[in-house]
Every structure is written in C-alpha cells, then in structure tokens.
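job 3f2a | input accepted
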Amino acid sequence: MLCPPVFVEGKVRSIRCALSCAGGIQPPEAAPYLPFFLFFPLFPSLFAHRRFSPPPGRPQYFTKLSIAPITILFYLTRSPHFMPTRILGLSAFYHDSAAALVVDGTIVAAAQEERFTRIKHDHNFPTKAVNYCLREAGIGPEEIDYVVFYDKPLQKFDRLLETYLAYAPAGLRSFMMAMPLWLKTKLHLPREIRKALGGKYRRRIAFTRHHESHAASAFYPSPFEEAAILTMDGVGEWDTASIGLGRGHKIELLKTLEFPHSLGLLYSAFTYFCGFKVNSGEYKLMGLAPYGEPRYEKVIRERLMDLKDDGSFRLDMRYFNYAQGLTMTNAEFARLFDGPPRDPESSITQREMDLAASIQKVTEDIVLRMARYAKELTGARHLCLAGGVALNCVANGVLLKAGIFDDIWIPSAAGDAGGALGAALFCQHQLLGRERTPQPGDTLGGALLGPRFSNAEIRAFLEAKGIRHHYCAEEAELLRLTAQAIAEEKVIGWFQDRMEFGPRALGARSIIGDARSAQMQSQMNLRIKYRESFRPFAPSALEEDSPVIFDLEQPSPYMLLVAPVREDLRCALTDEEQTAMRDPDLRKRVNVKRSSVPAITHVDFSARIQTVNEARNGRYYRLIREFKRQTGSGVIINTSFNIRGEPIVCTPQDAYRCFMGCDMDVLVLENFILYKTEQPQLSREEKDTYVASFHLD
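job 3f2a | predicted structure (697 res):
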C-alpha cells in the first residue's frame, strides 16, 4: 500500500515567537514610547539641575519649555524608525560557518569563516567573519541591536536524542562522538555568542528555524514582490524541505518534509558511496553525471524510496546509515548497487558514472515535482530557491527550462553559509516588521560582500616582501595587458574588489583563462587546481552575448544555472572522437573538442554559466569586453582562485601564495600585474608542501 504524501502543514509563527534565553524580540510598536509622548512636559523637571537654571529675571517655566523639544527628540530617536537597526546573522557548528551584517535592511557585509582561517568548510564559531563585518560597518559589538542564529539548537538536539533512542543501541558510537560538542558548546549558544563578542553584547539573541533562514536568504534579496519559496537541504531541526510564500516583507512556510526523508541526504549518500566527501563533493557527483547513463534510476525509485506526485517521499531506511551511524550507507545499499563504496582517490569506474547519472536524474524529477506543487499551493509567478540542493545548478537549469514559473532566483550563498544572511534578514523584515522594497536584479550587490584591499595596501605588501611587480596607473592598460595574456593562453589569477559571498568565484577572486583553448580544461585541472581531470570549468560571458553562446535567455549572475551551448557552436565528432567519448579513461573524453569554446563545454554540451554586466561586475565586465575587442569572443573561463582543498583566497597574501604554489602564469592584484617568469621559482618540494597544507575535499 502506498503511503500518503508526507509534506506536513507548516507552522505559522507569530512576531513574538523568536525566543532566546533572554526573551523574545519585540515588534515595532509605538506602545513602549507612549508614556514619553504623554508625559514629556514633566521630564525636564526630573532632570533639571544647576546648569539649566534660567538667567536672572527669566521665568522658570521658560527653561522647562525650551528643554521639552530636546526631550521629545531624545525619545523619538530611540525609536527603531529613527535609529539605525544593526542585525548580525550567524551560522555555525555544522559546516560553512558565516556571519552577515544587515543595517536598516541593507546588506553591509557577509563572509564565510573559512576564508579567514584557511580551513575549508570551517564549522567553528565565525569569530573572524564577525570581526570583519563589524569593521566594515565601523561599529563594535556593543552597537549591535540584534544577534540572530540561523537555526534552533534545542530543537535539533531533540531530533538527535529521539533518533538515537529509536536506533539504540546501534548508534552508540555516533552518540558518544556527538555529545561532547553539544554539551560543551551547542547547548549554550547564548553564552558562546556573548563570549565570542568579547562580553560587550548584552541584548537579546534570537533563533530562527533553519528553513526560515534559507527561505529568507532566497526571498528578501530577490527582485520579486511575491514569490513561491522552495528550500531543500540535508536537515535543519527536523525539516529537510519546505514550500512557502513570500509577499512584501512577510514569509509563510506552508508545507515541510521531515527527517529522515531528505533529498539532500539522499544525494549525499550517493556522494559518499562514489568516494567523494559529504558536504563538499556533491558538486563533483553532479559534474560526473554526464559521463554516465542512468541505469540505476529504476532501482532508486523502486527500492530506496516511495515518491509522491507532490515531490514528497519516504526513504527505506534499511539501506541507509546516516540516521544513527558514522557512514551514509550500509551493506544493504552496497548489495543493491553492485559492490562496496569506491575508495576515495581511487580510479573512477563506469559504475560511479552511472550512479551519478541516476541520482542526478531522480533529483531533477523530485525538484520538478516539488516546484509544481509549490506553484499549485501558492499560485505565484516566480520562485525563489535555497538550501544546499539549490546549488545543484543542473537541476536548476532543468527547472527553469520546464517553464513552471516565469522566473526563478537563487542567492549566491544558497547553502548553510547563506543562513547567516537569511537569519539577519528574517529578523529585519519578519520579526521587526520592517518594509522591503524589491530592486531590479536583486539587493545582493553581485554577492561582493567580503573584504577589499586598496592599491596602497597591496603596494605595501609587495614592497615589504620584495616582490617584483608592475603598476598600471590606467585601467585601460591593465585590461589590455590582461586580455592579451588570456588570448596567449596564459592562466591568470584575478584579484579585484570585494570578495564574493558564497561558494562560487564571480570575478573578484577568480582564476581565468581562454575558453577557446582545447587544452585549457585539462591543463588547469592538473597543473593549477590539482584536481580530478573530469571536472568542467564554468564560463563568464558578457550578459549581452550570452544568448548567442548558450540556450539561456535570462541572466545567471551567480553561476547557478546550467544550459546547453548553442548547436551552431558545437563540433561534429569524428568516429575516433566518438570512440574516445566512450573510453573508460575520463581524460580522453575531456580532451575531445566539442565546441568552439571547448574549455567550458561539458561532455553533454552543457555549461554552468555566469552572465556578467557592468553594473554588477564593474572591472571584470570591462576585462571580458576588452578580451572580446581583441579576439571577438565575449566568454572566458572562470574558476575559483584556490587549489584543491583550499578555501578561495581572501587577501593579497593568500593570492600570492596560491600563485606561487601552482603553475599560474600571471597574477593581477587590483592595478598590479605580477609575471611568474619574474618571480623566484619554487622547487617541486616547496609546491608539494603548499598543496599538502590543505586537506583534500
């Protein structure tokens, strides 16, 4: 017998529900100020002392009346409608810790902790990210009005205890490993937060639900006045997916899917089984999928899950171990899929390619079903996506092409890091009731929300280290030289403006190259990134040129949509090339030229696209425009400025170390150009030491 749909009714929260240990956040009512408005004439006399004494011969009441306007002004300016409201959002203690600061509804700063600590996916409290946000705003911890954490730890702890009890004694080892961190830190977050803020923050701390944070990160910065909201990830407190509606400054979650039935955890189970790291390697699985055939799709649908028309489903937990154990899958899962999990770093076989293709196909189907149900529930024309599954840009592209909604919008930091921003925005609009004005495009500012470094700071670093460099006083000369180097098939480290917020490099901390080069993909993967050769690179294309290169009509500013390269740019494959495309050695498949922009064309003729315009991307747009002037091509390679296992670079020092630690040819730091041929050459041992300083992801 089929189970009924398992989406459950969402719980509508009131404004006063965001409780912390110190109490809840109060709504923006006039009531607290009413006594001051009614009795203000009396207040001056209460505070009167010698320096308010009237001049000789002047009536005493004149002084009282002259002070009254000051009193009115004082109390009025204490109102949130006059004082700037500074809200610090935090995510921490799972993966990708981050901090975000919102001032009067404007996103002032946001950054992931990993960029400062240089620990990939750093889960610790984001102390350095918080310090950066406060520096960017020029304030101290005592000037923050609200601190908001991105989920509710007590509800999450309740899930853990209930789950461990349900599986006892099977989950004892996992339980014993998890409890110390919970008992020491996670159950005492108000204390930990205040301690991290130096004991200077004494106001209230609020906790949003995990999927409220995701929903807020997607809807509030979006360009839509009204939109359906779909969030999908591993798990928050209990929820693993939600459907909601955003309208104006309010969000309502209408339906939720609950643990252990999770699309994010299902995808992570296959990530683990194929030999990649959970919460890190899911994008590798997505990139591997086009190499395979979905021959396991039927097995997944019939044996692992009971899928409903609305996209809700129940997983058969006999095949999984993530609820109680230290692995994602078990022996039953292995028997179902032809053997044990692949060992990390071992050769990838056709089985892994087919598993990747199969789970990707199932994921796309579930996303489409959930989206159709969201459309049915809300009747909205637009859709906002968030949660870790929203980083699956292949599924996003399929969803866009399906035409269920007129338009979709996905934030740059759709995963847990974005929960910090979502928590702050949820407080601003939902809890405090502040109005929201959607802007054309969005209010993320191109996701350039991290630190920037001036030419003066960069010069000081270069000169202090005695690093040879060239300074371009004029931007036109800088762009000409850089575009020329790209055209010569040099690999460029591009460091400009504020650092991006989210997992994608968007032209501020990027490694760039010529998309027309047939060798560039394999060379950059092996010589620069030190990563698997099968992984594709993304293109950055001028927004006005994108429709003539890709089958994509709308902008994709945050590299979260996949679309095919247009057929007129594709190459007809010879018999020899078609044979190579079936070769078990993925390197032979990668080296087949499939289009006139082969370095960014995946084996299925798709590309993960970033569209670039001048308003959002500034100098990066002008660089690509100059490259087009020189070559006729308005598209280049864009990959993150890091090597495998390393967080994206944050500072000029990080950029220079990465530049020297791999075979990059040119480094551009704002207006400075550095050529590798002019630098002291590192030995292979020194480069290996640099690579070994980061754990493989």
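job 3f2a | Residues 1-5, 11-68, 70-78 have pLDDT under 50 and may be disordered.
job 3f2a | closed
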